[in-house]
Amino acid sequence: MIKAFKKMNSYLLLLSFMVLFANSSTCSYCGRSISGLYTILNNKHYHNTCYENHIQLSCDHCDKKITETYTETEGKNYHTSCYRDHIQERCAQCGQLISGLYNTKEDKQYHEACFINYILPKCDICRLPIQDQYIEDFWGNMYHEKHTNALPDCDNCSRLICEPLTGGGYSINGKRYVCSVCEPSVVSDQSQIARSLREVKLIFKKVGIQDLPRGIPITLVADKDELIRLSGNRLGKIRGYTQYEAKTLGGKTISETYHIYILSDLSEIIFDAVLAHELLHVFQIQNGYKLKSDIREGFCNLGSKLVYDHDGSNLARLQLRTMYESDDPDYGDGFRNMSSRLNEMGWGGILNNLTSFK
């Protein structure tokens, strides 16, 4: 948005004609004496022909002489009617003449009020014009920045939950929120988990990850604080946790148990990605891998990436973008490092060289 002001000056040109005797005056243009009819302008005398050919203004639109009030702008002169009808800016919205301040966009001019009411983008939440800072989310919604402080965002798609954007939503324990767009696809019942487990194992099989332990309990946790407590108060945006216990006798492991906990009410694709991450923790423990935390979590995030790439939806792309933009040293830096290695050597190379990564 650009505000501009075009300077226009209106002048009244006064002409006077008199009949005088010869040699009574000298022409201010040619310097010769004047006899007969002549013209006076600003106390200067001119032969009529000198005035008409050299002094009198011509309209820069119609090229005819100017003999009355005229308008001067940007170094050019116009009859008042020529300027009004052909030169003066008109609002591209309402078509009326523009005088004074105006706004311009893409080489078109608008009255300030027309620009605000019809050209400026409207907030997708309150429908008022956006004149100051605004946010455009992943889904193309534009809204005033102030709404982010007043509305909760969806735990899945990050949309602000409100009637105009999502058709509402619901709260989980007053701490997490799910919008009505994501609600139909959320995993909120234990009976839905078997489908996810089958889907993830099929995706893993294609890249050579097989023979994971059977019968691992997978429990939905509604309260994020409870999940954090189960994980040993881990920091960050935690969505899942794998608990491992081993019993030993005489220095030998005689039994191992795994238990995976995942937040409830995640969209199926996000739930599958979290499950893939946690199953790769099981894979590492099962194979006795002792990896640095950034390699460990970065590798597990490759499982999430595998699920998101396989899905290819906009929600999957949003989650992938969030993963790549994370500033967490393990889940962000570690993932980007492992993703780069995956691009270089593929899944076969990753699985064969995992323990050698530093």
From TrEMBL:
SUPFAM superfamilies cross-referenced by the UniProt entry: Glucocorticoid receptor-like (DNA-binding domain)
Gene Ontology MF terms: metal ion binding; ubiquitin binding
InterPro entries assigned: DA1-like (IPR045218), Znf_LIM (IPR001781)
SMART domains per record: LIM
This protein's UniProt keywords: Metal-binding, Zinc
LIM zinc-binding domain sequence ranges: 26-82, 90-147
Gene3D superfamilies: Cysteine Rich Protein (2.10.110.10)
Name of the protein described by the UniProt record: LIM zinc-binding domain-containing protein
Source organism per UniProt: marine metagenome
